[in-house]
Specification:
The protein is an all-alpha fold and 288 residues long. 58% of the residues lie in helices and 0% in strands. Among the domains are: 2-10 and 25-75, no CATH class; 88-156, no CATH class; 243-283, no CATH class. It is elongated.
C-alpha cells in the first residue's frame, strides 16, 4: 500500500526492532515538510532543474506548480512559431498576441529625451518609431535603444564642442599675445572685412568651426589694406598698436627726443617721459 510505504511500516525488522532501510523511507509528515519549506523542494528534483536560473524565484513547490498553471492558461499547449515567409500583418498579429510590451501603434512609444544643446529632428523620431514597430520592439526595448543611440551621439558631439572651445581659447590667447593692446582693434578690422566680403551663411558656418589663426590674420590684413572710408567707420579713430609696432615707435620717439627724455630739467621732460612710458607698456602688455 502506498500509505504503508510513506509511513515506514513495511520492511524487515532487525533484532533491535528497527527497519532494514531507514535511509530509504520517510513518513508522510517528513515528505510534506520537505516540499513546503523554503528551498527544500530542490532536493527532490535533479540538479539541472534545481540550479537552473529560471527557477531562482521559486522558494516552495507550490510556486513551481502555480507558475506552470499560469503558463498553461496564458499560452495553451504551445506558442505559434513565426515563419520565414510571414508578412508584416502576420508579425503584427503575432506580436499583439504573444509580445505583451508591443504597442498597437508606433505613436504609442514614449521617447522623452532632453539633452542640453542637442536637437533631435521630428522626422528622425518618426523614422525610428516605424523601424522599432516593424521589428517588433517592445516599449521598453525601443525606448532603451532610442536613449542609448542618442546618448552616444550626444557624448560625441559634446566632446567635439569641448575640443573646439579649447582650440578657440588657445587661438585667442595667441592673438592677444601677438597684438597686445591692439587686439580689439585688429579683431574689429577683421570682422568688418568678413562682413564686407563673405556671405552671411558662410559667416554663420564659421561660428560652428574652430577659430583658425591664419584666417583671422588674413582678414586683419584685408581690413587694414582697404583704406580710409571703405570700412564701417567706428565712433573714434583707433590708436592701438601691436607690441612690435609700439616698440619700433618707442625707439624712434626716444631717439627723436633724446635731450628731453634724458635731461630732467628739460621743459618737455615730463611729457616725453609719459609718452615713452605708454609706448613701452604697449610694447610689453603682459609685463607688470
Amino acid at each position: 500500500m502506498p500509505d504503508d510505504i510513506l509511513d515506514g511500516s513495511t520492511g524487515s525488522e532487525g533484532n533491535d526492532g528497527s527497519t532494514g532501510n531507514d535511509d530509504q523511507t520517510m513518513t508522510f509528515d517528513q515528505f510534506k515538510e520537505q516540499v513546503t519549506q523554503d528551498g527544500k523542494w530542490r532536493d527532490l528534483v535533479s540538479k539541472d532543474y534545481a540550479t537552473d536560473p529560471a527557477t531562482s524565484n521559486f522558494t516552495k513547490l507550490d510556486d513551481v506548480v502555480k507558475s506552470y498553471i499560469h503558463t498553461k492558461k496564458a499560452f495553451g499547449d504551445r506558442i505559434e512559431r513565426p515563419k520565414e515567409d510571414w508578412t508584416k500583418a502576420d508579425w503584427d498579429r503575432w506580436n499583439s498576441e504573444y509580445n505583451p510590451g508591443y504597442p498597437k501603434d508606433p505613436a504609442d512609444y514614449n521617447f522623452e529625451l532632453e539633452l542640453d544643446g542637442y536637437e533631435i529632428r521630428p522626422e528622425q523620431e518618426e523614422k525610428f518609431r516605424k523601424w522599432a514597430h516593424d521589428n517588433g520592439l517592445t516599449r521598453s526595448q525601443a525606448e532603451r535603444t532610442w536613449k542609448n543611440l542618442h546618448m552616444d551621439r550626444y557624448e560625441q558631439k559634446k566632446a567635439q564642442l569641448d575640443s573646439m572651445k579649447k582650440k578657440v581659447g588657445e587661438t585667442i590667447a595667441e592673438l592677444k599675445r601677438e597684438y597686445g593692446n591692439a587686439y580689439d582693434d585688429k579683431i574689429s578690422k577683421a570682422q568688418q572685412a568678413m562682413r564686407k566680403f563673405l556671405p552671411e551663411e558662410y559667416i554663420t558656418k564659421l561660428k560652428s568651426t574652430p577659430l583658425d589663426k591664419e584666417m583671422v590674420q588674413f582678414f586683419i590684413k584685408v581690413g587694414e589694406n582697404l583704406g580710409e572710408g571703405k570700412l564701417e567707420k567706428s565712433s573714434k579713430p583707433s590708436t592701438s598698436l601691436t607690441p612690435r609696432e609700439a616698440l619700433a615707435k618707442y625707439n624712434k620717439f626716444v631717439e627723436d627726443n633724446k635731450d628731453a627724455y634724458l635731461q630732467r630739467q628739460h621743459p618737455r621732460h615730463e611729457d616725453v617721459l609719459a609718452k615713452a612710458t605708454k609706448l613701452m607698456e604697449d610694447a610689453y602688455p603682459d609685463e607688470e
